[in-house]
Amino acid sequence: MKTFVSLFLIFNHCSLFASHNTVNRDSLVSSPNTQKLEEVIVTDSKFPMKRSQSGKLIKKIHREVIASFQGYDLSDLLFAAAGIEVIGNGLYPGQNKTISLRGGRNRNVLILIDGVRVSDPSRIDNDFDINFLPLSGIESIEIMKGASSTLYGSAAATGVINIKTIPFEDGFLVNVQSSVGSLGAQDQRRNSLNRFQNSITLQKGTKKWGFSLQASHFSANGMSAVIAKEDDSFLRYQWELKIKNETTEKFNWSMAFSQHNIESEYDNSFPISDASFELFTEMDRFHFNSDYQFNEGKLSLRSGYQKSRRNFISDYPFETISENTSVDLFHTRNFNDKYFTVIGLQWQNNFAAFESFPDSHQTDLYTNIVSRFTKRFRINSGLRWNRHSSYKNHFTYSFNPSLTLTKKKQIEIKLLCAMSSAFIAPSLYQLFDPYSGNKDLLPEENQSFEIGSALSSSKVSGSLLYFGRLENSALIYDLVSYRYENGPNELWYEGIEVDFQVSLAKNFELYFQYTYLTTPTGDLRYLAKNTTQTKLQYNLNDKLQIHLNFNTKGKRLALDSVTFLEDYQLLDIRFQKTIPRFRLNINASITNLFNTNYIQIESYSSRGRNFLVGLNYSFA
Known about the structure:
Helices cover 6% and strands 55% of the residues.
């Protein structure tokens, strides 16, 4: 705690020397001579608000950044562009990915697509498989850390990842993307092309109607899941149809239906050995959203349905089928730009085809209010009542005051603090799996606290934040009983997050991020206490950019909680070229430039030096 206080005071002292003309530094990729407007975010309040009015440090990844990662996966983007820990992103493409925010795991992180929560109730943590989503259909991503169950319900214990798909535009538009490259481990020769990704989007928009059809394909065959000589192939293909309608000036609706398929080979994980196993995964996803604007506010509906099927072909074959339904109806109202209120009703239903065909449902009532007492002082607070079919009543809260110390043309400095709670119901797998399930599990509860500061100016922007999180009745897998249990003790996680961005010259920018994470009693397997990410961006002109990305990870506990995995450093380089005359973007990248030998998960293959080249062509 003393370390945090010292850093906090140094941070605020140094911020007084920042330069002139406040400009929000939102995008991690920007072109020179571009005037930046203040960024608008929605995740922390369900209201579109300027970043300066928010009491949370929300990270937003814009379309320009996403475009520079063409041909890569969502996990690569979250790790490299936002510094999010994704366990498994450096392995072969079919590896299950674990998103970790502030020491949490998949069960603690909620994923939204166009405001609709998505999950697979047959998976261990009732989470969503991010391997399904191609980057070609994503417009932006907002990442909010900290317990957020008050606004979003069960599972939002350490954060929310809000994914927005590409919006409709007037007129006719065709976009084609194609990428080709290599995929291999450190000790493999990359003498052939074995990674391919293609996508096409057709879009037609008018003032009232919009139609969009998008399809993509990704295949790779150059790595084994475990350390072995036999390659494990990966194939993903999907399509999505979207429709929108502006029925009147006050009422609009949109709907989308998509089908996703993954065919992947995998190896034996117990015991770890090379094998010729296969996994066929399918997901059908539908959502319907609507907004009705009236004099007293706006009534919004965010609803969705997903059906997932997984067929494991191995020495012990099995199949899972699950369904997830979510309906969120909420009313928002702005009272004279001083009070922004949300009142909502949410219903969720989960089903998984285990032996007893179990399901669970939750009904929630929630309210949230952003109170702007002065131009400088705000409080974002909320309360949620949750009624679970098995665990009855639970209440969660949030309290988030923020104070702008200085807001002039030259500089803005803001103090913020947040206290919140979260509720996580055990998944159907953890309850009813015939081998490891435990019907006596209790729900997990989280309490979160954070305090920090943020500054913004034309040359320098950054933030410094301390966080702490308390887990009660943590859901764990007992390696003695081979069943899921509740942890016997309270688990405490704490750490420091530092973000810093500075314009070193007219066309040269530096971005630095540092995270310190520790726990006396919790689970830090595969999570480093110290991680850093340094990015350098050089704009040769407004059409050519070069990016260097240097990541470091400290030592991490292995699966046995005794062995330590060695620290490592990775350097990536990316080039991005725009040719406006032909409406063409060209991307090229080399990852793990020095072919560093590192271990992310013991006995599993890690990616070595690989390259990727991509073309992005649009015409109207």
